[in-house]
Amino acid sequence: MIFNREFVIIFILAxxxxxxxxxxxxxxxxxxxxxxxxxxxxxxxxxSNFFNLFISPYHQNMPKTGLYRPLAMASYAINHYxxxxxxxxxxxxxxxGFHVVNIIIHVLNSFLVFWLIxxxxxxxxxxxxxxxxFLTHPIHTEAVTSIVxxxxxxxxxxSIISIxxxxxxxxxxxxxxxxxxxxxxxxxxxxxxxxxYIDFVVLHKKxxxxxxxxxxxxxxxxxxxxxxxxxxxxxxxGAATTTIVENHLIFSSFLERIFTAFKVLFMYVERLVWPIHxxxxxxxxxIQTVSNPFVSLESAVGILILxxxxxxxxxxxxxxxxxxxxAVLFLFPYLIISNLIKPVGTIMGERLMYFPSFGFTxxxxxxxxxxxxxxxxxxxxxxxxxxxxxIFYGVRTIVRNKDWRDSQTxxxxxxxxxxxxxxxxxxxxxxHIRAGEWDLAKEQLQIARNIYENNSHLQNLLGVVADHEKxxxxxxxxxxxxLELNPDATNSSINLARLYLKQGRLQEAGDNFLKVINFxxxxxxxxxxxxxxxxxxxxxxxxxxxxxxxGSSLDNPDISAVVGTAYFVxxxxxxxxxxxxxxxxxxxxxxxxxxxxxxxxxxx
Length: 604
What we know:
The chain is an all-alpha fold. The protein is 68% helix and 0% strand. It is elongated and about 95 Å long. The chain crosses the membrane at residues 7-26, 96-118, 147-167, 179-198, 210-227, 294-316, 323-341, 353-369, 381-399. TPR repeats lie at residues 456-489.
């Protein structure tokens, strides 16, 4: 028997090792998808909106993405609330709390890996080896160090907890945990065949009884389906926004999709075995389509890997339950994101290997265990080999964390591994633009154009460059092209509105700011829209907009300034003075405020 004291030691070890190998990522900033999904989200920073997150799509006001992960969103919201109380000002300071939470969840997950393997198979070496390999594996960097990887972490956590309660015959808590896993990420659905396998093969239940036990999960799934439909509506079954850039397999023939998916399977396993060439992005045109597996060694090996996994699962009695269980934990979570069953939103992503890697580490640990049992090598040699692998994994993870420090380090690292990725090239161009490195930005944008030109983000950045070079006709053309390709491209609407302001085209500027507000209401653009309405001599529209979003709030100097200016234009000087003086009191020292106050006072 393993004693409770040893479980405590394992948990402490999980804490120490997790912070040792992932801790240098805590100082990292919001990068890549962190920015849009977590950092720049007004709905996540408003405490009054917390429960509304459970009936909202994962991407704000974008049900067409087909993603619904409210538990992950709720956890981000809690992080934001804590940040606001601590008043972290820098990007890395704001992100630190998010990183710490991700590492803590990884601690829990690693501990549960140890517990589950020991509970099912009562083998210390298999449990320890799997636990350590899983905890330190470099492929987990994207799930742990990237903040948006939390959906993977939470889904794994509640899936394993669901299994825990199931094998302990507490079906109610198992069902609740399953619901929480689904609310973390849709792919948690794969835990059901895993539980069925455990019940039938490991716990030796009859197949009818095992299938009957699955009925307990219909209620939580039904509740999840209702909430998902409430959030996504007609996009309940999937996304309508995936383009050729995110996953070109959606636009490939059936056989091309299948053969290329086998190639991707090989690439995943390659990175699990030898995690050196890791990348944050595998989108178009990083992975070439495979039309014939006989001319693609990667695709052919991928087919063999799938066959091997199926054989290990089907012939568990002749093989071994331990390695068969590893195959189950790899294959079922993998299939749901593989593009083999149906196309998904991305062609490949290392964060998606978080759950399948559990199965992989079981298989590797089982192989090492068998080498010891067969005494073909001295046990010390196996322990030494495992130690070397763990040190290699740990060091590689620490090094990989550094790539995620900020956008510049991440995309410079990514472009080395995925030089043909359109998303990476445009992201790196964006980094150069923000740094004022316009020539470098243009260089990256030209490479991106050679990869694929009909991309909304690329067209927007081309417009930004044209705007910087004062070629306003070309800038307008590019911003409009961006919106034609993606009507929901808010950055393009913002840039177009700013361009129109420069040109004095106030009505068009206001129309674009209003479009942004209707999609993504933030104080900055509400204020800009309101000032445009005032400039158009429509102060009532400005007051209507300010009242709609801010009520009668007086504690914000910028809001008070807008409202005061609107009343000033209406020549309602008494009301104007209340808001204008309030704006000054709270720190708005703009000279125009002082001038309006003088004029208003002289007219009373």
